[in-house]
């Protein structure tokens, strides 16, 4: 299996110019208040902040619309910033946070780590930045080879379709909820963690939702339809995302051990 570690070491200058932003909001429909859900005595959002800090690729900031989340993160030694409550997407929240914590534009790279990934490995987060460190992509993301046969036809599992551009690296051609591509060969489970060049993030959030984005309900298609390049780093496993009470119990079991 491919390694989860980034293929390119990050220079001190790149780490100094990278922001890792974790969007978090309380209004989850399936699991209300989940950023503050207790896991092994610590709020879930704090676990995610710690994993991002362990990645050691740059400054880590939680972006939220909740004073309670700011307080919880700060109490455990993290950094959090308040953002507006009316953002339509995590990308919009991240862009506001970037402007707040780095108004001078020093950070050139922005990594978006979802706030419901409490068990994600720091090395997996770091892997998302590698395509920007050693390639021409505007945006980078992650995927893992699908090994569970049921995932191949599950519309809740987003498939990344791409062409190889290097070891464990694809250039994205499409993302879909369908089973694709057809024929023999691996299928890739897309992992919704993104690294942006700052100017690419600025351009992305200024674009209107695209036709295929609306049809597939996949925000990253907006970038592809606009001609932006997305490269994909292939990692070992898909991190556990917490969307339901059952997911939360699984995360508790993992982190308790």
User: What is the domain total for the residues?
Assistant: 1
CATH homologous superfamily grouping: Spore Coat Polysaccharide Biosynthesis Protein SpsA, Chain A
Gyration radius from CA atoms, angstroms: 17 Å
Roughly what is the average pLDDT, rounded to an integer? 93
CATH class: Alpha Beta
Q: Could you give a short description of this structure?
A:
With 257 residues, the chain is an alpha/beta fold.
What can you tell me about this protein's structure?
The protein has one domain (12-246): Alpha-Beta Complex (Spore Coat Polysaccharide Biosynthesis Protein SpsA, Chain A). It has 10 helices and 11 strands. The protein has helices spanning 12-16, 44-55, 67-75, 90-101, 122-127, 130-133, 198-206, 211-216, 220-225, 245-256, and strands at residues 18-24, 38-39, 42-43, 59-64, 80-82, 109-112, 139-145, 159-166, 169-176, 188-197, 230-234. It has a 5-stranded mixed beta barrel with strand order 7-10-8-9-11. Strands 2-3 form a two-stranded antiparallel ribbon. The longest helix is centred in the first third of the chain and has 12 residues, at 44-55. The two termini are 25 Å apart.
């Amino acid at each position: 299996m491919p390694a989860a570690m980034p293929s390119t070491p990050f220079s001190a200058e790149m780490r100094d110019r990278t922001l890792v932003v974790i969007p978090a909001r309380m209004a989850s429909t399936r699991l209300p208040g989940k950023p503050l859900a207790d896991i092994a005595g610590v709020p879930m959002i704090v676990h995610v902040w710690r994993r991002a800090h362990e990645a050691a690729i740059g400054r880590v900031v939680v972006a939220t619309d909740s004073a309670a989340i700011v307080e919880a993160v700060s109490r455990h030694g993290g950094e959090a910033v308040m953002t507006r409550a009316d953002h339509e997407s995590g990308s919009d929240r991240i862009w506001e946070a970037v402007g707040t914590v780095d108004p001078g534009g020093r950070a050139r790279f922005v990594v978006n780590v979802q706030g419901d990934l409490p068990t994600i490995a720091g090395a997996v987060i770091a892997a998302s930045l590698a395509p920007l460190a050693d390639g021409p992509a505007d945006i980078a993301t992650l995927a893992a080879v699908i090994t569970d046969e049921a995932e191949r036809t599950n519309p809740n599992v987003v498939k990344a379709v791409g062409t190889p551009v290097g070891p464990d690296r694809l250039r994205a051609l499409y993302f879909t909820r369908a089973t694709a591509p057809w024929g023999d060969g691996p299928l890739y489970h897309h992992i919704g963690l993104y690294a942006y060049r700052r100017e690419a993030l600025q351009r992305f959030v200024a674009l209107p939702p695209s036709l295929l984005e609306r049809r597939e309900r996949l925000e990253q298609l907006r970038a592809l339809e606009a001609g932006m390049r997305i490269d994909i780093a292939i990692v070992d496993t898909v991190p556990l995302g917490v969307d339901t009470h059952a997911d939360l119990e699984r995360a508790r079991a993992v982190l308790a051990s």
